[in-house]
Structure of Cryptochrome/photolyase family protein:
Amino acid sequence: GPVLVPVLGDQLSHSLASLRGSEKADTVVLMMEVAEEATYVPHHKQKLVLFLSAMRHFAAELAAEGWRVDYITLDDPANAGSFTGEVARAVERHNPRAIRVVEPGEWRVRAAMEQWADKFPCPVDILPDDRFVASLAEFRDWADGRKALRMEYFYREMRRKTGLLMDGGEPVGGQWNYDHDNREPPKKGLKAPPRPLFAPDAITRDVIAMVEARFPDNFGNLASFHWPVTAAQAQTAADAFFAERLADFGQYQDAMLFGQDDLFHSMLSTSINLGLLDPLDLCRRAESEYREGRAPLNSVEGFIRQLIGWREYVRGFYWLKMPGLAQANELAANRPLPAFWWTGETDMRCLADCVRSTHDNAHAHHIQRLMVLGNFALLAGIRPAEVQEWFLAVYADALEWVELPNVAAMALYADGGMLASKPYAASGAYIDRMSDYCGKCRYKVSAKTGPDACPFNPLYWDFLHRNRPALEANPRIGRIYATWDRMDEGKRADYLATAETFLRELAPANAEK
Ligand code: FAD
Ligand code: DLZ
Ligand code: SF4
């Protein structure tokens, strides 16, 4: 029989290792829409449409190139409902002499895939996913014997390996990292150019109808679906980013403005994570924007660092720390996820705007995820497992390998500081400095305690007080306790009482999705 090549929903790259090593005449490409992937978390409707539509477009492209594609739709009455079940059916149909597949992005799927060799009568070859700069073995070697795994040092290795922004052995401009230039508050009246939107074509409209029919109660809005679903559309999106937004990307990377959901971000994460864009190619293009004088070094270095630094690093971290990372809860946080994370019904204007953007776009930008949503969950002590599930469900770019390290380790400090040297905890002043959220908020960011106080203010101190045994010894945070200890006792009691009142009144989400 032929070689069976299963291609998963985040493997939509024509250069995929399993396709590169195969002969068209001798191969059946298997693509599977399965209930298990559609329901393992309650995905945002746009995320469901994005994956399924992009899969259908990719299958059509492969067929047009002459590949034999066996495509199973979600509403096929014979659908077995899981990758393993569908591969079993395909083995019956095609009697393959071998199965060749690229390793999956998620641990859950890897565990299932490792059973295939025993289940099926033919050999199963699981190939490394070489769409990353660092192999998993390379990351393990780098991590081996290190006490803390700081992204910055790994990033320098990736700069040397790729030669990106290098002048010989030295970093361009003399420094590795220009992040200190990338923390500008937004200027009054700042407005980013709009990004290209991709209207749903017939394939996407079919998927939209299917998702509305099968998942009517999932979170999210489909009227505003306009993600790129093909490599060509993703290139158009990338072109627009390089031409119109890269130059300001660095400066306003941490800025937040009410109702401006994209600002100067690339909005390319969905396309990169699905495999429609090659991250290394994007980095080379960004570098040439710098070399040709069209974008400043801080923007270009920042963009490249997100891709060959953070993105590569969190992937290595995920595979190093799984399966424990999914259960990690170093700070023993035990509060249920609040209902407003789904409804957006809160007087906290920053959070309401972030939940609204998440609902409307299946996207929020990094600082909204980290310093508004993540910071709130950290300070309020929300259960990591519930926060993780929410992030995995609601963002169109969420695959567990990238979501989990960002949520558990970066935002919630649930790993106890392997990734971050201290918790990203901040009071309302940080959000006020970096955004225009606070002016029209029903809470006062300058009020520290009492019913009008910005909840981030008392929650900040409540968090530090509650977690003192775990955090006091941290040299980067210990001195904050000196400030706390110097406050008079009445003030400290007011902080704790204000936090307690706020937390008591937080309605939990229960089973509501
Ligand atoms: P840009 O700001 O334009 O950045 C460029 C690219 O760099 C992104 O497309 C992305 O591929 C990469 N990148 C940037 N930051 C990170 C990071 N911290 N980790 C990995 N890659 C990064 N990113 C995801 O792709 N999927 C997730 O599920 C996800 N969950 C997150 C959860 C939390 C709590 C936090 C703090 C961050 C999360 N991120 C996640 C990282 C980051 O927020 C998104 O990649 C980014 O907002 C995507 O928008 P963009 O393409 O406009 O990014
Ligand atoms: C996210 C997702 C969804 C919603 N549906 C599918 C699907 O039906 N078929 C598929 O191949 N992939 C889907 N995906 C992406 C997978 O969850 C992703 O490829 C794996 O989790 C990676 O290990
Ligand atoms: Fe958010 Fe506090 Fe500002 Fe309101 S005052 S927008 S709750 S940071």
User: Anything to note?
Assistant: DSSP finds 24 helices and seven strands in the chain.
